[in-house]
Predict the 3D structure of the following.
Amino acid sequence: MDVSTLFDDVKRMNKRQFLYQVLSFGMIVSSALMIWKGLMVVTGSESPIVVVLSGSMEPAFHRGDLLFLTNYPEEPVRVGEIVVFKVEGRDIPIVHRVLKLHEKENGTVKFLTKGDNNSVDDRGLYAPGQLWLTKKDVVGRARGMLSLLV
Amino acid sequence: MNTVKVVVKNVPDYSASREKNDLGFLTFDLQTDLTHLFNWNVKQLFLYLTAEYETANNKLNQVVLWDKIILRGENAILDFKNMNTKYYFWDDGNGLRANKNITLTLSWNIIPNAGLLPNIFAHGQHSFKFPEEYTTSRM
């Protein structure tokens, strides 16, 4: 890609054509953003597609696998499901499986997670003093996956 | 097809942890054949044995007692006798003693190469009770 020829092309365009290109580009970016926001609405999750960051769920998920999440409030979390959660105060999403769950009559639920490839549960990963995860820590539940490494 | 037969003997302990909760103890038998679940798109099967029960403290409790990963190509016929649980059966509170209805279910998660991740429950379930008294003897 020769940068000088790129600018030559732009110089050759008149103002109208240039503005037209800018608008087309802006539309593409906006459409992409709208699709992403639309996915957020449809799935109910703040991050409907996540990338697996660690090997703690091997051999099910490897680093680089894509996961599709949903976060519907009417579908409660159940044991054995793979959830993506964020520990309070930290930004990294963690993908692990629910090991234990205790739910009260009024709907408040607390659960414990563990990575398939880890020998201990996730209590060491939670915030200091935190023994359980709650609904608000959950970003979504894994519903589908795409593994690009075979 | 599948046959899931689960037989238990169990004893709740009053263990000294920070919270002093009920700790259940059981062993189980399990026979099942899952070879029909595998196909080209199934990378592995994640099996887990769940105990589900209700207590005065919590309406719904689900605890995974044991799990196993079966990769495609590995033997999918299981025949375990007097298997120990992999994880401690802690209750959130003291709801295990004299609990009349604990249901054990075998479920599995199909992990594909690409596509949906379904969770399936087995046909069979097995229920048992915990005894009335705590046991302090060493297991």
Remarks:
- Chain A touches chain B at residues 59-61, 78-82, 97-105, 110, 116, 142-147, 150 (CB under 8 Å).
